[in-house]
Amino acid sequence: QVQLQQWGAGLLKPSETLSLTCAVYGGSSSGFYWSWIRQPPGKGLEWIGEIDQSGSTNYNPSLKSRVTISVDTSKNQFSLKLTSMTAADTAMYYCAKGNCGGSCYPLGYWGQGSLVTVSS
Amino acid sequence: DIRMTQSPSSLSASVGDRVTISCRASQGINNYLAWFQQKPGKAPKSLIYAASSLQSGVPSRFSGSGSGTEFTLTISSLQPEDFATYYCQQYDSYPFTFGPGTKVDIK
Q1: Which residues in B lie closer than 8 A to residue A58 (C-beta atoms)?
Q2: Rounded Cα gap, residues B91 and B61, in angstroms
Q3: Contact (CB, 8 A) for B5 and B88
Q4: B66 in the Ramachandran plot: left (φ > 0), alpha (ψ -120 to 50) or beta?
Q5: pLDDT in tens, B12-58
Q6: HSE on the CB side for A1, CA within 13 Å?
Q7: Higher pLDDT pick, B76 / A10
Q8: Mean pLDDT for chain A?
Q9: I need a labelling partner for A39 at 20 to 30 A (CA). Which of A99, A111, A113, B41 fits?
Q10: Would the CB atoms of B55 and A101 count as touching at under 8 Å?
């Protein structure tokens, strides 16, 4: 049974840095990417980026200049940092883990979500 | 970026109905297509991967089909717990992108 639990600050001021962490419990860690996705209130889903256990990352170009995803394999955790936050970054942020059945896919299991609000 | 579109944007259906949702990619995605279900206030849940493979634990009334740029999610007999928003997502190329969603509500 794979579970993802995430945490981090929920209220930020403009220009501050978002910091979220996601812990992965259960299942194998090797060969999977761990991802971050966000969803503004009442809107659709936006993929932020991903990291594998070796630390190799892929980012959405729309956020690449402000995003850092890192991994701590000893704790089975990965983290998101997003700098220079504005009101436009207000969203529910989700972490996710890949899964493999007949083939592998990146967003098999999701965390519960963290609501992040940017307001002065 | 690959643009994903879905139709319809919303639909009303009754319990027991067969429901079909379409998803189109702006270019071929080699069947690297996933479907998710999201209920209000909850995280998305993975239903289908590789266009037609069912994630473990997902009821068999859900099925996916299609290839190239055109894909379909079918719910063979809608159940009360299936009223939700459904998203398609391509993972063929970066950045991964999602469709805008289809909201399924009660007629």
Answers
A1: 94-95
A2: 24
A3: no
A4: left
A5: 999 999 999 999 999 999 999 999 999 999 999 999 999 999 999 99
A6: 2
A7: B76
A8: 94
A9: A99
A10: yes
> Is A105 in Cβ contact with B50 (below 8 Å)?
yes
DSSP B96: P
Which residues 40-79 of B have a C-beta within 8 angstroms of A?
43-46, 49-50, 53, 55-56
Buried b (16+ CB within 10 A) or exposed e, B29-61: bebbbbbbbbeeeebbbbbbbbbbbbbeebeee
Which residue out of B46, B53, B58 would a mutagenesis test of the A interface target, given it has the greatest number of A Cβ atoms within 10 Å? B46
The residue whose two tokens read 């690449």 is A64
Cα angle: B58, vertex B4, A79; to 5 degrees: 70
Residue B55 · residue B48 · CB < 8 Å: yes
